[in-house]
Design brief:
By secondary structure, the protein is an alpha+beta fold. It is built from one helix and three strands, in the order H-E-E-E. Strands 1-2-3 form a three-stranded mixed β-sheet, with no helix packed on it. A hairpin with a 3-residue loop joins strand 1 and strand 2. The longest helix is centred in the first third of the chain and has 22 residues. 8% of the residues are buried.
């Protein structure tokens, strides 16, 4: 795919113009910035299958009553409340929570 840069960000090859290395470095930096902006704009990155995730004041992941036997995989890293009631969990594998930020 291609990204069309605004005219003021295009590059030439004459005197005072950016080299191809500088051009590709600036384009890479621009793409990283756009990717990070998209990531930060959507606080809930994923939600486990059969769970619901909401983002009000806190990130709430509700996996209640789904028949889980273990903490589900794919929890959003910024989960603040995890609801697991009415499942078949007998032993908690806390390693599933290690990557959480909260």
């Amino acid at each position: 795919f291609g990204v069309k840069l605004p005219e003021e960000l295009t590059f030439g090859s004459g005197p005072g113009m950016a080299s191809r290395h500088t051009q590709s470095t600036m384009l890479a930096t621009f793409l990283v910035f756009v990717t990070m902006a998209a990531y930060l704009a959507s606080p809930i990155q994923s939600c486990p299958t059969n769970c619901t995730c909401t983002d009000d004041v806190e990130i709430v992941v509700n996996c209640s009553g789904q028949g889980f036997t273990d903490i589900p995989e794919g929890l959003p890293k910024n989960t603040t409340i995890l609801k697991l009631s009415h499942n078949n969990i007998t032993v908690l594998d806390l390693r599933r929570l290690y990557d959480l930020e909260s």
